[in-house]
């Protein structure tokens, strides 16, 4: 960049200021167009699907109403006593009455488009009056056994809609309406066959372009579709349908990739019949206008950027003229030896050289003096006495103060390396200037958040300034807390009158810092010689046993009270050591983990993510932090043990309930309320207990019972299906094949041969 002329650099900067935001705006607006277009297409597709669904529902509802009105008339009354075909044809009156029924059925067909045929059958009679075969014997007409099966699950007095294929090969959706006491004194059955193709026309009424629309029963059976080979098959086997239609939403839309094409799917469920209406179409055709708009925006953006480039060059030439004239003047009056550089680089080097020549000598001397002094102090703290040290500390007496940052791990996690380095620089500078006259202080960073202050003074000077030193340390504590956002603890060693004793005094100050765990954060502590054997040892074995007993009982309050008792015992011991305190808590943690493992309770999940527990304890500054950490530690263990027990108890109740009620139609949401847990939690427990979903587990129980009935009884397939909880043979066959790989009849034959 330094070799590129300034005018070009300025032009490039102006270009980037204009072009980059413009390009980003173009990209964002284009993506928003696509995104909003997709959302609008999805909403439009769903709205069209609902319109088609309502059109189809209205047509079927009209046909059902016309059928019920016909049933309410007295047209069937004159022939209700005629049970045989021969009796019907035995006299003119009976024939005339039957023809009247025939005409009414024809009128019923004409009221709604797409009716293929309709017929009436009198209960117990051997004839059928139909629009496609007139009056004919029942034995010459299609079998009516399917109507009995269709009416098994009927509720109320209305009829039922049944998709099926006639013997003639025509696919229809039949409306089966039994005459009842409320509508007629005649006992019989009216069947109206609506062509499947007419329902398909209703479903495609508002569609534009290459769309696919499908009508399915609630269990997934295909009622209407363009591909007639898929009629009456399981539509859930088609891509994405099971995933979408088994969700809780009764309508919606989504986007999917299939064979490299992006498709929009929309689905809607009828509140009346429970049937699913599904449609899908290609997004490539629907999004063509949006993509054309996006391309036009890109072309317009390119033209704007090109024009902006020309303007940027002209503006850069005008703005850089004064600076170029200044460079020409400097080059004419001085020879800096700068070649192949642009104007900005030339001026930068010129000013840098002038500044370097002025400051380099002073800076070099100052840095050398400071580094030499700090290095000498570091050597002294390690016990290495260098010749330079007598110049740094001219007096005979020394005292060491260690300033330690409280909660240092939290401080490190909240600051970066550069900030911590800057803090050390400021603190070292402040500390050396806060001590009274007559006391020379040198400050260096030691390790792990500790700054060591070496105080050097004459014996006489120290005796008169003890109070001023304490005041200086209080100022150090307050200013450090304000700068760092953390309190600091200060440990002050005993007096040393030789350089060789400085290392020992550093040890004393560091030992005082450990007493922060008892005295609390933000303390200023002074070293005091202790009498021999004055340190007391405290044992907490009895407390450990009580805590483990409370843990087995799940008594968290008891554990917390016992931890408070340990805390009080530690606080009451005046001379207890830091090592003894850490041993007590380390021993408690170790005993707890050992106890859990001896009872075959996995500890990995309970302490996962906590890191090295013993290192965490060692990094804590006060008893308050230790106690708070242990409260949370034991709370998580007790909660984990409670969850494990609850899962086991709920799991046993759920499995027993399913095994006792699998023959019934179980409503899982009601089952969850009865047990007293949420539905999602119940699903999770069943999967963890059995490795299967609840639906799969119930179907597995049904199929296992069906296998026993197939081998041990002479029940028919239909009887066995009803016995194990399936409402129709088709569902039973489908699930049996899914779990056993063969239909029930083949399974029974195979087992009979093998036995």
From TrEMBL:
Residues 652-750 form the HTH araC/xylS-type domain. This is AraC family transcriptional regulator. InterPro entries: dCache_1, Homeodomain-like_sf, HTH_AraC, HTH_AraC-typ_CS. The chain crosses the membrane at residues 6-28, 297-319. It is a multi-pass membrane protein. It comes from the Bacteria. Pfam families: dCache_1, HTH_18. It is found in: Cell membrane. Its main location: membrane. Keywords: Cell membrane, DNA-binding, Membrane, Transcription, Transcription regulation, Transmembrane, Transmembrane helix.
């Amino acid at each position: 960049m330094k070799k590129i002329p300034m005018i070009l650099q300025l032009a490039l900067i102006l270009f980037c200021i204009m072009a980059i935001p413009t390009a980003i705006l173009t990209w964002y607006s284009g993506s928003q167009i696509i995104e909003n277009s997709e959302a609008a297409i999805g909403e439009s597709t769903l709205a069209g699907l609902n319109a088609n669904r309502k059109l189809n529902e209205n047509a079927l509802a009209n046909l059902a109403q016309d059928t019920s009105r016909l049933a309410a008339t007295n047209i069937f009354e004159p022939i209700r006593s005629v049970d045989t075909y021969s009796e019907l044809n035995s006299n003119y009156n009976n024939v005339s009455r039957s023809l009247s029924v025939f005409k009414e059925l024809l009128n019923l067909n004409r009221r709604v488009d797409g009716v293929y045929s309709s017929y009436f059958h009198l209960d117990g009679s051997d004839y059928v009056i139909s629009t496609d075969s007139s009056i004919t014997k029942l034995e010459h007409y299609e079998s009516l056994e399917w109507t009995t099966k269709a009416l098994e699950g009927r509720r109320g007095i209305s009829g039922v809609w049944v998709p099926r294929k006639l013997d003639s090969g025509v696919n229809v959706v039949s409306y089966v309406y039994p005459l009842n006491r409320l509508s007629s004194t005649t006992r019989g059955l009216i069947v109206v066959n609506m062509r499947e193709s007419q329902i398909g026309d209703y479903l495609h009424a508002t569609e534009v372009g290459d769309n696919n629309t499908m009508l399915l029963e609630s269990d997934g059976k295909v009622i209407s579709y363009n591909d007639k080979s898929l009629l009456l098959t399981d539509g859930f086997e088609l891509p994405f349908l099971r995933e979408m239609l088994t969700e809780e939403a009764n309508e919606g839309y989504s986007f999917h990739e299939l064979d490299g094409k992006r498709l929009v799917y929309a689905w809607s469920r009828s509140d009346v019949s429970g049937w699913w209406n599904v449609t899908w179409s290609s997004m490539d055709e629907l999004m063509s206008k949006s993509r054309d708009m996006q391309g036009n925006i890109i072309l317009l953006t390119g033209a704007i950027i090109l024009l902006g480039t020309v303007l940027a060059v002209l503006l850069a030439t005008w703005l850089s003229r004064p600076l170029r004239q200044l460079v020409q003047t400097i080059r004419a009056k001085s020879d800096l030896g700068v070649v192949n550089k642009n104007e900005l680089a030339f001026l930068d080097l010129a000013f840098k050289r002038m500044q370097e020549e002025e400051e380099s000598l002073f800076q070099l001397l100052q840095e050398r003096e400071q580094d030499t002094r700090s290095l000498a102090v570091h050597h002294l703290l390690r016990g290495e006495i260098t010749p330079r040290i007598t110049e740094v500390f001219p007096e005979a007496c020394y005292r060491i103060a260690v300033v330690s940052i409280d909660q240092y791990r939290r401080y490190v996690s909240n600051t970066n390396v550069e900030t911590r380095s800057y803090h050390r620089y400021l603190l070292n500078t402040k500390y050396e200037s806060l001590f009274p006259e007559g006391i020379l202080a040198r400050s260096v960073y030691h390790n792990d958040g500790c700054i060591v202050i070496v105080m050097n003074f004459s014996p006489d000077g120290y005796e008169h300034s003890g109070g001023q030193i304490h005041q200086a340390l209080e100022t150090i504590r307050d200013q450090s807390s304000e700068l760092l956002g953390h309190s600091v603890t200060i440990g002050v060693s005993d007096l040393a009158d030789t350089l060789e004793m400085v290392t020992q005094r550093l040890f004393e100050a560091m030992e005082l810092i450990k007493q922060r765990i008892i005295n609390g954060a933000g303390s200023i502590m002074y070293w005091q010689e202790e009498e021999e054997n004055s340190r007391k040892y405290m044992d907490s074995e009895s407390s450990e046993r009580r805590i483990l007993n409370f843990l087995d009982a799940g008594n968290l309050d008891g554990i917390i009270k016992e931890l408070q008792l340990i805390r009080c015992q530690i606080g009451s011991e005046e001379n207890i050591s830091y090592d003894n305190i850490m041993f007590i808590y380390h021993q408690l943690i170790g005993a707890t983990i050992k106890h859990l493992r001896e009872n075959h309770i996995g500890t990995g999940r309970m302490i996962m993510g906590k890191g090295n527990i013993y290192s965490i304890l060692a990094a804590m500054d006060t008893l308050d932090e230790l106690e708070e950490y242990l409260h949370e530690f034991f709370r998580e263990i007790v909660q984990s043990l409670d969850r494990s027990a609850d899962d086991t108890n709920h799991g046993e109740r759920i499995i027993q309930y399913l095994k006792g009620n699998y023959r019934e139609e179980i409503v899982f949401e009601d089952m969850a309320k009865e047990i007293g847990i949420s539905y999602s939690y119940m699903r999770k427990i069943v999967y963890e207990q059995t490795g299967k979903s609840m639906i799969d587990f119930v179907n597995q129980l049904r199929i296992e019972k069906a296998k026993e009935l197939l081998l041990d009884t002479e029940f028919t397939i239909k009887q066995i299906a009803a016995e194990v909880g399936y409402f129709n043979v088709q569902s039973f066959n489908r699930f049996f094949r899914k779990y056993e790989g063969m239909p029930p009849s083949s399974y029974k034959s195979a087992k009979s041969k093998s036995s």
